[in-house]
Structure to design on (1363 residues):
């Protein structure tokens, strides 16, 4: 009976650990989201609270590890009470008032993610830092935080921590005494406390943000470490390159420097962030090595090295003055010195011994085991990573997004009427957006929520389509590519219909392939319905739907020529057409009204809206091709990328002999024909050849890329290398697109208008050009007196005038030269007192001459 | 362990033939205006950058256009002959020339030859190696054994000697590694009812295509030739003899004095003479014999050099021959294919010179539009190859040809200088060793391109430099991929059970048997 009970407990624990592993990614992703939403003040506050907590924990762990098990509960209790008491000091210690709801969210949602990894690490050896807290304690943390603010959250955190430690102590064998853990924790505490002391509150804010983000990166890689260790059975000392690599990778990918800038409001350079992640990676290696050496009987020497490193670190920071960069450098120097010292001791003992063949074998094992996991878990994990990337948008709305928001003002009927009379888009996306803003408002994240959701769902959709067309492996690779594909990420962060369009397109491909395979009427009906959804999302999808049905027609003709039965196929096709037709009927009146009334339709027959885009050049075709796969980049980068077109020839050559199949033909037809048609249309009206108009091609290109790399079957290395190369290129492109300078699609109206709003007084006026910036001005600066810059309409004689221009959005009616003429004429009696530029936006401030 | 030649062939030369004519014609029709668009742009005087480089580029492009147009024309004329049964029992001499090959390889061929159906056959092993094992092998299978006292004229001389010592009206020839299908004669003899037919050729199928990169790529090249190209040549009445898996009418051979012994590509030269005499040829698009292709780089290079040397030497002869125009053009196209290596040399040279000296063939101010005019023509032309071969022509085949570009160059120089060439039998089994010398010129090119790219990047990272670095990377990748089997040293003949299918689909080629 007892045995059965123990087995049950073991099973339950195994299940719990599996669940913990499964939830690690999602929780970490949510933590990132929470961190991204912190304001600088609360972040600093939180960092301070955590510093206090860590100081407490160091003492507690140090005491506990050297204490006989019998006396531990007493000590735990005492430490708990002391911790709670100390936590109360966090409030006055922190510079801010009370923690924001976001800070509480971070604690409630994020800490368990780190706690889970720490618990897992604890099961194998003593942890190196971390925020161990049982999932159940999130209730205490959340409740305390919600009621008592920052102080309460800290108290909840400590409470949860000790509850977790008590449970662990009761269920597991006693922890082995370790002097390394407290010393390593001491290094972290030194970082925070000394940095707070020497840097002052402002610089410490930046430092704390970097510290927290780096810590998250490090903690989130814990499962990777434990997982790899379980697979390979290698000692902890061999894991440090993995920790270092994973921490750096996660940090670099998920935590771009611009996020830090947005969070803390003071410049914290990318170099600084990367340096700090490097510090953490080195320190993790340092910690692992120290523990390993200690377990092998080198406790005394290890302790001396660790103590020396802590002293070195503190000394360097204290002696450096108030330079943030120097503080980080000091941390890195101490960790490197410690690592070097320990490594020199470890190498002769054979602790650090890695061979290339071992690495290859382990990599293969890891890949095989990962691929053996249930696809749903892998795809769910990818989707959550994708969600976190998509949520990490740090750019404001641009013109078209603001127009979308403006169009969904008011009642639903008014919105539809507006679309019918003044727009060229079908109403599905706007209807979803209208519903979203009724539920969660009009903040940036709220209006982008439909695209974020669609863009995230696109990841499992790619998996399903890839699996249906080619098989499970292709589906997984396609989902992985889709997670980081720059253009998919970009339009998932834009309050326009393109993410939805791509999602529905991929679903339509999936339904198409499935209908042909199964022949079931429900699949055919799905294909018809999704085709209709495409047309309700964007009218250009008419090309897509036509191709889709033409492909079915070709299949029927071919089957008939081969003498095969076609009745079932015909019935299915008829069902699809029927559903498509039925769902399109309600759209017809809208199309009719838009055709006869929308002034924007003239764009389809006029040469170009943008005078800079007068000719469809080879460069523009290549640029769109690069954008489709690798996203948006600065002009300089694009020129260099486009110059590499001979590699495209290599790619074409490499396709020789790869044969054809029905799936590839379908994807090629659905991908290439719309591009070709828009290319021809672009010869007349340049604006029409634009990657977002053939956005449906992009996920298909990803599917084809996944198919190509998974078709390399000469060895698993070839497949792995090909996949890694493509994925790496996408990740690098994604990082450059999201945080690099000179992205031509980044319009920083948000910052420009925030500055205008902050400095404008009553009586000042904002004039903008081109005239259709009213939506974006209305979104970001609704309280400012504003109007378009129009010739012949002089501004008020008193007060300052802010002139906001964004010439890359100009059309033929308002070319930059004309606007500048107007400006120079109007301001003869005024002088420029200030001028600033943000990406794609220029603001000049004029004041009457006295 | 079962001989792979006895397995069911994994390739159908008629693959993709259905509707291929129409597709190729459409692509050809599309390609012609695209080619005109490209060349009308290229031929403008303002395009000229460095005059010499421009001239070289233009010559290479014109040559390739001529080859491409020939390919479209040939493939558009595809013909698949309907099966034709013979009305009478023919008497056939079956010749199996041998010259020192492994008796184990010869045995399967002799065994299959004596089992041929559909005619009264007499199998003769023509042994130029004077091997007692071969003699006993022939005796064991009841085949004749012919050994000539004086060895002259290589394989052609061997067959001529046998012709003089035999008398049947039809003569089938199989290389000693080509195992005929029992239906071989049943499928071919019917076409001799047409009294003008001098020979009936069937495809060469490499049963060892799964034995590594060279064998797979070599067969992919063969597959393009014995697929759409051979079908097209048959449609144009210009199919030539490929030396094995072929049946001759004795009177036709006698009318031209037997096999020409002065050429290293005696089959090609013989075909010209027969067509000159008014004889016709037929091609049966069905695998009726399974042989062994080159398995290592040295064998491949040796084979290609012999073909290139012989065919390029035949060019003057082709232009002098009294042939119908379309047949003459077909022969010329086949011969001139072996000058393709020169164009690859030109293309490799361009980025090299640009990165080292700054000189480029096209004027820098107009070079930006090169891609606009070139890419449609390039993509459509490549699509034509892919469609015609039904995916049979692989990237590996292209790379192998590129990595041995120097063979064409060397062969044509040798032909121009009139250097003598000895007939070398292609090895039937791979050496299993690394053979870097066989691809030394390609390795030199790779080294030069890499060094030039590194230097270019060190000096400047502007778009023009990057563009040429990308071209260099393209060439390096292709050359390295093609040369890789010689560098890695592919394993020697594995047991049959371990032979895996070719990693690439069996596909098209370049030209000559």
């Amino acid at each position: 009976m007892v045995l059965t009970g123990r087995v049950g407990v073991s099973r339950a624990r195994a299940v719990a650990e599996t669940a913990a592993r499964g939830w690690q990614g999602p929780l970490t992703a949510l933590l990132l989201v929470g961190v991204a939403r912190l304001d600088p003040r609360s972040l600093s506050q939180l960092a301070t609270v955590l510093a206090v907590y860590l100081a407490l924990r160091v003492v507690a762990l140090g005491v506990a590890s050297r204490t006989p098990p019998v006396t531990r509960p007493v000590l735990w209790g005492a430490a708990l009470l002391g911790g709670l008491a100390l936590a109360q000091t966090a409030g006055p210690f922190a510079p801010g008032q009370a923690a924001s709801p976001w800070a509480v969210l971070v604690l409630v949602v994020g800490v368990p993610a780190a706690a889970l990894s720490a618990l897992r690490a604890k099961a194998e050896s003593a942890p190196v830092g971390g925020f161990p807290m049982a999932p159940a304690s999130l209730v205490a943390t959340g409740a305390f935080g919600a009621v008592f603010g920052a102080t309460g959250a800290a108290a909840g955190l400590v409470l949860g921590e000790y509850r977790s430690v008590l449970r662990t102590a009761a269920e597991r064998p006693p922890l082995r005494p370790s002097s390394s853990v407290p010393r390593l924790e001491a290094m972290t505490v030194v970082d925070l406390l000394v940095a707070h002391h020497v840097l002052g509150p402002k610089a410490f804010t930046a430092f704390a943000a970097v510290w927290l983000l780096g810590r998250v990166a490090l903690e989130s890689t814990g499962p990777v470490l434990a997982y790899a260790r379980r697979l390979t059975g290698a000692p902890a000392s061999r894991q440090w390159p993995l920790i270092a690599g994973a921490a750096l990778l996660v940090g670099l990918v998920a935590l771009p420097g611009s996020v830090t800038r947005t969070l803390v409001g003071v410049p914290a350079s990318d170099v600084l962030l990367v340096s700090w992640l490097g510090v953490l990676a080195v320190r993790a290696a340092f910690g692992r090595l120290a523990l390993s050496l200690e377990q092998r009987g080198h406790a005394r020497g290890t302790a001396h090295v660790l103590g020396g490193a802590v002293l070195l670190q503190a000394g360097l920071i204290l002696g450096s003055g108030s330079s943030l960069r120097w503080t980080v450098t000091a941390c890195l120097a101490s960790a490197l010195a410690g690592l070097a010292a320990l490594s020199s001791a470890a190498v002769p003992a054979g602790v650090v011994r890695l061979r290339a063949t071992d690495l290859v074998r382990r990599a293969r094992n890891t890949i095989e085991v990962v691929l053996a996991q249930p696809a749903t878990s892998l795809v769910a994990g990818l989707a959550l990573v994708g969600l976190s990337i998509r949520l990490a948008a740090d750019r404001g709305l641009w013109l078209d997004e603001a127009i979308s928001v403006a169009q969904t003002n008011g009642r639903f009927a008014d919105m539809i009427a507006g679309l019918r009379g003044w727009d060229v888009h079908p109403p599905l996306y706007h209807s979803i957006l209208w519903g979203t803003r009724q539920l969660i408002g009009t903040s940036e994240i709220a209006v982008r929520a439909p695209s974020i959701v669609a863009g995230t769902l696109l990841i499992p959709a790619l998996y399903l389509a890839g699996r249906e067309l080619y098989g499970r492996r292709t589906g997984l690779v396609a989902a992985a590519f889709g997670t980081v594909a720059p253009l998919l990420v970009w339009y998932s962060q834009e309050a326009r219909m393109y993410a939805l369009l791509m999602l529905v397109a991929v679903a339509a491909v999936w339904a198409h392939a499935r209908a042909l395979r199964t022949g079931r009427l429900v699949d055919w009906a799905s294909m018809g319905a999704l085709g209709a959804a495409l047309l309700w999302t964007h009218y250009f999808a008419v090309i897509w739907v036509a191709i889709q049905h033409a492909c079915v027609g070709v299949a029927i003709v071919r089957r008939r020529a081969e003498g095969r039965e076609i009745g079932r196929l015909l019935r299915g096709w008829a069902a699809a057409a029927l559903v498509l037709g039925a769902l399109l009927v309600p759209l017809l009146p809208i199309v009719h009204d838009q055709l006869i009334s929308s002034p924007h339709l003239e764009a389809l027959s006029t040469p170009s809206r943008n005078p800079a885009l007068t000719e469809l050049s080879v460069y523009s075709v290549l640029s769109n091709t690069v954008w489709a796969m690798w996203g948006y980049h600065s002009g300089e980068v694009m020129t260099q990328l486009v110059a590499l077109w001979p590699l495209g020839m290599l790619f074409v050559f490499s396709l020789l002999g790869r044969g054809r199949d029905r799936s590839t033909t379908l994807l090629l037809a659905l991908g290439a024909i719309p591009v070709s048609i828009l290319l021809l249309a672009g010869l007349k009206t340049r604006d029409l050849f634009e990657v977002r108009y053939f956005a449906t091609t992009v996920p298909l290109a990803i599917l084809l890329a996944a198919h190509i790399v998974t078709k390399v079957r000469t060895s698993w290395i070839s497949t792995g290398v090909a996949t890694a190369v493509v994925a790496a290129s996408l990740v690098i492109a994604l990082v450059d697109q999201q945080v690099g300078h000179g992205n031509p699609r980044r319009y920083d109206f948000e910052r420009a208008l925030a500055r205008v709003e902050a400095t404008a007084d009553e009586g000042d006026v904002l004039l903008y050009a081109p005239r259709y910036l009213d939506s974006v001005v209305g979104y970001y600066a609704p309280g400012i007196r504003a109007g378009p810059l129009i010739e012949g309409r002089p501004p008020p004689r008193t007060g300052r005038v802010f002139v906001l221009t964004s010439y890359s959005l100009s059309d033929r009616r308002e070319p930059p030269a004309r606007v500048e003429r107007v400006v120079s004429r109007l301001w003869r009696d005024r002088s420029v007192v200030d001028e600033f530029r943000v990406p794609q936006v220029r603001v000049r401030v004029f004041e009457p001459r006295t | 362990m079962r001989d792979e030649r006895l397995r069911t062939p994994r390739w159908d030369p008629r693959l993709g033939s259905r509707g291929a004519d129409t597709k190729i014609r459409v692509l050809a029709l599309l390609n012609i205006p695209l080619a005109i668009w490209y060349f009308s742009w290229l031929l403008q005087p303002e395009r000229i950058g460095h005059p010499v480089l421009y001239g070289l580029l233009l010559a290479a492009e014109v040559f390739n256009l001529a080859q491409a147009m020939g390919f479209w024309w040939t493939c558009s004329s595809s013909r698949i002959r309907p099966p034709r049964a013979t009305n009478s029992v023919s008497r056939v001499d079956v010749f199996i020339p041998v010259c020192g090959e492994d008796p184990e390889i010869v045995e399967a061929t002799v065994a299959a030859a004596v089992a041929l159906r559909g005619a009264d056959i007499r199998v003769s092993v023509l042994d130029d190696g004077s091997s007692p094992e071969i003699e006993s092998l022939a005796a064991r299978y009841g085949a004749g054994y012919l050994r000539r006292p004086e060895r002259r004229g290589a394989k052609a001389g061997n067959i001529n000697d046998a012709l003089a010592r035999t008398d049947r009206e039809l003569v089938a020839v199989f290389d000693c590694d080509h195992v005929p299908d029992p239906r071989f004669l049943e499928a071919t003899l019917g076409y001799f009812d047409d009294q003008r037919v001098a020979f009936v050729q069937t495809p060469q199928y490499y049963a060892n295509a799964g034995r590594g990169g060279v064998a797979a790529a070599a067969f992919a090249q063969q597959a393009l030739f014995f697929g759409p190209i051979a079908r097209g040549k048959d449609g144009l009445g210009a199919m030539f003899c490929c030396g094995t898996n072929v049946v001759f009418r004795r009177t036709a051979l006698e009318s031209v004095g037997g096999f020409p012994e002065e050429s290293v590509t005696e089959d090609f030269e013989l075909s010209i003479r027969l067509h000159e005499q008014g004889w016709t040829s037929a091609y049966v698009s069905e695998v009726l014999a399974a042989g062994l292709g080159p398995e290592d780089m040295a064998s491949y290079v040796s084979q290609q050099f012999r073909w290139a040397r012989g065919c390029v030497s035949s060019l003057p002869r082709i232009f002098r021959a009294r042939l119908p125009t379309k047949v003459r053009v077909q022969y010329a196209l086949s011969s001139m294919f072996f000058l393709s290596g020169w164009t690859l040399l030109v293309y490799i040279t361009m980025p090299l010179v640009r990165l080292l000296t700054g000189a480029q063939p096209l004027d820098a101010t107009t070079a930006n539009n090169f891609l606009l005019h070139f890419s449609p023509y390039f993509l459509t032309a490549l699509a034509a190859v892919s469609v015609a071969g039904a995916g049979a022509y692989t990237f590996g085949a292209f790379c192998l040809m590129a990595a041995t570009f120097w063979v064409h160059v060397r062969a044509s120089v040798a032909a121009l200088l009139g250097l003598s060439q000895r007939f070398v039998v292609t090895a039937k089994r791979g050496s299993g060793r690394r053979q870097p010398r066989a691809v030394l010129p390609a390795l030199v090119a790779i080294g030069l391109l890499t060094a030039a790219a590194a230097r270019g990047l060190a000096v400047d990272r502007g778009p023009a430099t990057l563009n040429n670095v990308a071209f260099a990377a393209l060439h390096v990748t292709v050359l390295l991929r093609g040369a890789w089997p010689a560098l890695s040293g592919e394993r020697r003949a594995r047991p049959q059970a371990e032979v895996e299918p070719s990693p690439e689909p069996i596909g098209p080629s370049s030209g000559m048997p």
Summary: The interface with chain A takes residues 220, 368-369, 371-372, 378-379, 382, 385-386, 391-398, 461, 463-464, 466-467, 470-471, 473-474, 477-478, 503-505, 507-508 of chain B (CB under 8 Å). Residues 51-76 of chain B form the longest helix (26 residues). The first strand of chain B starts at residue 90 and ends at 98. The CA atoms of residues 196 and 315 of chain B lie 25 Å apart.
